[in-house]
Structure formats: C-alpha cells, structure tokens
Amino acid sequence: MKIKAAVVHEKSAPFAIEDLDLDNPRDDEVLVRMAGCGVCHTDLVAQAGFMPIPLPAVFGHEGSGVVEKVGGRVTKVKPGDHVVMSFRSCGVCSPCARGLPANCLDFFKLNFAGERADGSPTMKKGNETIHAAFFSQSSFASYALASERNVVKVRNDVPLELLGPMGCGIQTGAGGVINSLKVRPGSSIAIFGAGSVGLSAIMAAAACGLTTIIAVDVKGERLELAQKLGATHAVDSGRTNAVEEIQRITGGGAQYSLECTGIPAVFRQSVDALAMTGVCGLIGVAPFGVEVSLDMQTILNGRTIRGVVEGDSIPDIFIPQLIELYRQGRFPFDRMITFYPFDQINKAVEDSEKGKALKAVLRF
Fold it and tell me: Which of 269, 278, 192 lies closest to 235, judged by CA?
C-alpha cells in the first residue's frame, strides 16, 4: 500500500517526507494507522549513522495508532483497537522465558536490522529497498507494520496521540525506578538528567512513595519542571558539586540513583553519590567503546551497578499500568509533550536537540 514516510538517505541528512510502498501484513503482523509518534534520542542516533542500519531508512519507534489490518494468526488485537508499539523480542530465548524481554538474545537483530528477521524488506520506493522495521515498526510514517509481539492494546478513552512515547522513553524511565531498582517507599533517589526519561523516573518515584527525590541537571527550566512533577530537591550540577550536595541532602548518600545522560563523568557521579549498599541504574546510552573510570573501593563497599534497557518492562503489562496512573493524575507525563505535525519532523528534531522540546511527538 502507498504511505508517506520520513526517509533518511545519508548520515545526518534531514528527514524527507516521501511516498513509499509498505508491504502487506504477514500472518504474525499488524498494520497500524498512525496517530502519534514520539521523537526519541535513539532515532537521532540512527539518523546520524551511529546504528548498524543501512541507509536509506525509515526510523521511529514510539508509535501509537489504530489497528487497520491483522495477519491470519494474530489474536492479541483486531481492527479498530488502539495500540502502542514498543520494542520487539523473540519470546522463546532464556531471558524472554524469564520475563525479561528487553534482554532478549535477538534484541539487536529484531530491532536494528532494518528488515524482517528473515531478511525481507517491509518498505520500498519503486524497485529500491528502503530499510525499515526499526523496532519492528518504523513509525515515522502514516502507517506502520508491526509484529503481534510488539503491539500493546490500550484503552480507547485516553488521547491516543499522547501514548506513543510510552513504548520506549517513558517506560524506560518509569520502569527503571519501578521494575529495575524496585524502590521502597520512604527511600531516597538521585536522578541524573531531567530530560523525558529522567522526568518519567521522577514521576514514577513520586508515585511509589519515595520521600527524597533529587533531580540533577544543568538546565534550570528542567529542574523547575522536575520539582512540579515530584522532585523534592533540585541540584544544578553546573554550579554545585552534585555528589557533595546529594550526600548533604540525604545524610550520607542516596539509596538509589539513575544515570540518564550517557555521559561517563555523570555516570561516575551517580555511583559516587550512593549510600552504602546503594544501587545505581545505568539508562543513558553512550556509543560503543566508551569507557568509564570508577573507584573500586566505592563498589567494594556494598554498592551495585546494573544496566537498564527499556525499564526492564513487559510492555503488555507495564504500559497499561502507566496509563492507569496517568488517568488517576499520578503520572502526568503529558506535561512533557510538545506536538508537531508530521510534516514538521525536522523542526521537532531541531527543538529536541536544542532542548526546546522535552518530548516532541509527531501528530498525524
């Protein structure tokens, strides 16, 4: 079928809205008419050529929309259902079997190959293959082709165009707190980086009853919003020694911390700011090969570091839970969102990179 999609032809080139051909859904696939799609840092990393995806390609992986058509074996959803699209997992490997789909052994193959698992394309322009199936969706397009495993049915009484970011960034930050760190009410957490992922973590920490929630960033307006969304303290790390200030606020160190920037120096701070037996979750993504230096004695004294992918979420369970928290007014993620028409995708990217938009969402 004919669709409109945002194509990247060369590394760091702007997105070009073009007419493409989208394949028909196979037996295990779902065709989704797009309502909204978040712009995520991972999309911009792919646009810049730092992902192993051939160009030209269509990205986008925080899509929400309405099911248009389903394959013959699909039972999870039916035409007319509202869905959020998330990451894809195989469902059969050891991590998947243990309820850890974000650690699927085929995660990279299923989400970053730019084609179906069998090597076939989902998008073309005439006879030219356009690499797609990004996170098994490529949702910077008027229609997306997903798998049954990575669509999540959601209730139809919440604005659908809001929900796309639930599929990646928002569930990553919130899940980092709830699923990965398994925080305890009344405890303390320091969250480094108050972008959309960090702010999602702050809202989740507030919803979980943490009593000391410290936002760390260098942008004053982000710290102000963090306090409106649940942070009890704000630390401007451009003006203050963040580690010393966190130790002062908590009386020796935070019980939990989350690193959401991918900057090695900030990661070091997020570990050094922990109390004895504290746990640091690493969410921020750095290019392959980037190393960090840590004080071994700091780790020896009972501290733990763990990597966090997609908030250790089972999307079919976790995304509806976050939506219910939103409906109850306990997870106001909509306050982070700025909408852009789909044809203004390059403006959305520019504003995201300049920090003018915390979470840009394309509206179709």
Answer: 192
Q: Are strands 337-341 and 359-363 parallel, antiparallel or unpaired?
A: parallel
pTM higher than the cut 0.70: yes
- The span from the CA of 32 to the CA of 42, in Å, is 21
Task: Just give the CATH number of 2-167+332-363.
Answer: 3.90.180.10
**Can you tell me the distance from the alpha carbon of 201 to that of 295, in angstroms, rounded to the nearest whole number?**
26
Report strand pairing: 123-125 vs 359-363.
unpaired
Short-list 56, 81, 68, CA closest to 29:
68
Q: What is the DSSP letter of 241?
A: -
Residue ranges of the chain assigned to CATH 3.40.50.720: 172-309
Q: Which CATH architecture has domain 172-309?
A: 3-Layer(aba) Sandwich (3.40)
pLDDT digits (tens, 9 = 90+) for 14-55: 999 999 999 999 999 999 999 999 999 999 999 998 888 999
CA–CA separation, 172 vs 136, rounded Å?
Answer: 18
Residues recorded for the chain: 364
3-state helix, strand, coil in the chain (%, to 5): 35, 25, 40
Paired tokens of 359: 């979470």
CB 165 within 8 A of CB 337: yes
Strand partners, 215: 191, 234
- The structure tokens listed for 117 are 């698992």
Q: Which tens digit of pLDDT belongs to each residue from 121-149?
A: 999 999 999 999 999 999 999 999 999 99
Residues 6+ apart with CB under 8 A from 319: 84, 86, 152, 154, 163, 166, 167, 171, 313
Confidence check: pLDDT of 288 > 90: no
